[in-house]
Amino acid sequence: MPETFATRAEMREETAEAVCEIAICIAQAIHEIDPQAHRRMNFNAGKAYNRLIAGQRTLAADILYRFGRALMDTDLFPEEERGPE
Fold first, then answer.
1. What is the spatial distance between Cα 25 and Cα 18, in angstroms, rounded to a whole number?
2. What angle separates helix 37-54 from helix 8-33, to the nearest 10 degrees?
3. Following DSSP, what letter does each residue of the chain receive, concatenated?
């Protein structure tokens, strides 16, 4: 089978995916210590996303968007069930 070279777009996508996965791993470690940290991280990721969009940094904004979406995934960041208060 001949070797194929990744296009520049494929390499950018793979790099973006890796950066997001690294951020998720770090966020999960923080989440184990502070189960509400993912919500604060999501808020800050949203602010950073808006700054990046305003500066027309679309690739960086896309990475922040993916990260923010992942932070709200309850499979990745489960929250403790709260009983009636």
1. 11
2. 150
3. ----PPPHHHHHHHHHHHHHHHHHHHHHHHHHH-TTHHHHHHHHHHHHHHHHHHTT-HHHHHHHHHHHHHHT-TTTS--------
Residue 59: left if φ>0, alpha if ψ -120 to 50, beta else—which one? alpha
77 lies in some domain: no
Pull the structure tokens for residue 85. 């208060």
pLDDT per residue as tens digits for the range 42-61: 999 999 999 999 999 999 99
Structural domain including 46 reads 13-71
> What's the whole-model pTM score?
0.79
**Is the residue at 76 inside a domain?**
no
CA 38 to chain CA centroid, Å, is: 10
Q: What is the pLDDT, as a whole number, of residue 37?
A: 93
The widest CA-to-CA distance across the chain, in whole angstroms, is: 64
